[in-house]
Structure formats: C-alpha cells, structure tokens
Amino acid sequence: MAKLTKEQAIKWDKMLGGGYHFDIQHFVIWGEKEAVLKIKTGENKVLSATLEYRDERDGHRYTGRQKPVLHMQLWTVDPETGTGISQGLGASVDVGEVQDKKNWKYLCELSGEYTADKVLELAMEHAGQLGNPYLFTKTA
After folding, report:
1. Which entry of 29, 35, 42, 90 is 20 to 30 Å from 53 by CA?
2. Is the pTM of the predicted complex or chain greater than 0.90?
3. CA–CA distance, 124 with 108 (Å, rounded to integer)
4. Residue 84: which pLDDT band, with cuts at 50, 70 and 90?
5. CB 46 within 8 A of CB 105
6. How far apart, in whole angstroms, are the C-alpha atoms of residue 131 and residue 136?
7. 115 has a pLDDT exceeding 80
8. What is the C-alpha to C-alpha distance for residues 96 and 107, in angstroms, rounded to an integer?
9. Is 72 helix (H, G, I), strand (E, B) or coil?
C-alpha cells in the first residue's frame, strides 16, 4: 500500500486540467497515479474517463516502455443506493506518445487536451464497447 499525504494529493490534483481529478483510491491501493474525469451523460448515467499508463507490447513481448491510455466506462447509477453498474470492460484508446517510464506530468498535459467534449466524441466512436450502442447526450 502506497503512502500519501494530504498535501501530495492536493498538489497532484491541482496539476490536472480539463476537470480531471487525481484518483486517490487507486494510488493508495496500487501505487499508480491516474487521472479520472466523470461526465454525467443522462439520467442516472455517468461516463468515467481515466488517463493511465499501460505496458507497451510488441506482439506478446513487453517492450519495457509505457503508453498513455484513455479508458472509458459507462456507469448506470441506482438512485436509491448510489451503486454504479457498468456493462463490459469499457473502451481504451491510446493517447499521446509512448514514454520510457510513467510520467505524471505528461498525463497532466494530456488531461488538458482530452476535455469532456473530446472524451464524449471518443465515447460516441466506441459506443458499442461501452455497452450502449445508442446515442447519449451530455447534461449539465
């Protein structure tokens, strides 16, 4: 379990743009920094977009490098319990350039580029993978 101070979490959160937030829970459990954006897409629907790193592969072989990925999942929230349910594994899109190692500052830069509008465009392109082949619209 990774150690984290309140000051570190605030500092890392402030580095992000585009409405993203530092995922404290993921860092504490896995020791990896991720940026999360939640977008309400309709009644009881939330699109979750996560900027993260994944191992780059060449076929089945790991290259030792890290590629930034935008992972999207569509959640249906039960209004009575607040419990979220997603269908499937979501959709992942490679973003940015492959890095030699995980670079938080680079993910912060990408958070400014992949705004809610851009994420919604990508979600529409991958609607089938998100478990919702029908169009959904952003609400305030």
Report:
1. 42
2. no
3. 24
4. confident
5. no
6. 12
7. yes
8. 9
9. strand
